[in-house]
Specification:
Layout (H helix, E strand, L loop, with lengths): L1 H48 L3 H7 L2 H12 L1 H22 L22 H31 L24 H14 L6
Helix pairs in contact: 4-5
Length: 193
């Protein structure tokens, strides 16, 4: 008799599991359908909003077109700078026990995937993402280097300060500089990204 009760309970559990599985499958299908519908709507909207390449070029001011080679020429020294700064970090940071800066945290290449941009706009976004990300990447490498070698604030006002500047010693504060420089250097080995 007890086995019969257990068998009945097991059968009910299996029935409930089966119902649950069916309900979850229906929910998944509804969700997938909604996502697909929204995705199709978004892609349709992107296609509608994308400006035709010929129209884009025809409506671009002539001075923008003339200045484009100058803008793109900057890419050559930027790539060279990227290579040298990356090499510097790769060689020197382990010597000074400084945590390396992760490129991927600064150089984010993703806007080219937006469907409402035409090919020229995507290329321009690629350039800006790389160049501005590179500047942030280099700035962080320089900031960590400065914290290691010369963590002293300037006497004059600085227009743009980097991520580590607030930790630096006041200009002229020789006592705290001598007492605290090793602490600041050790911090660079424990940087939390």
């Amino acid at each position: 008799m007890e086995h019969q009760k257990i068998d009945e309970l097991v059968a009910k559990i299996k029935q409930l599991e089966s119902e649950l599985e069916a309900e979850l499958q229906q929910e998944y299908e509804r969700f997938t359908c909604e996502i697909t519908k929204k995705r199709e709507e978004i892609l349709l909207s992107y296609r509608h909003d994308r400006q035709n390449l010929l129209r884009y070029l025809a409506t671009t001011p002539i001075l923008h077109l003339v200045s484009a080679p100058v803008i793109w020429a900057v890419l050559i020294p930027a790539v060279i700078l990227d290579a040298f700064v990356s090499l510097y970090q790769w060689v020197c940071f382990p010597i000074y026990k400084i945590v390396k800066v992760k490129r991927g945290d600064y150089i984010i290449i993703d806007r080219h995937r937006l469907g409402y941009l035409n090919s020229i706009e995507k290329l321009n976004c690629l350039y800006c993402s790389y160049f501005n990300g590179l500047m942030g990447y280099i700035s962080e490498i320089a900031a960590r280097t400065e914290q290691y070698w010369c963590p002293i604030r300037h006497a004059s006002r600085v227009k743009s300060i980097h991520s580590r500047y607030q930790k630096f010693f006041e200009y002229g504060d020789s006592g705290n500089y001598r007492k605290g420089i090793e602490t600041l250097r050790k911090e660079l080995g424990e940087v939390q990204e």
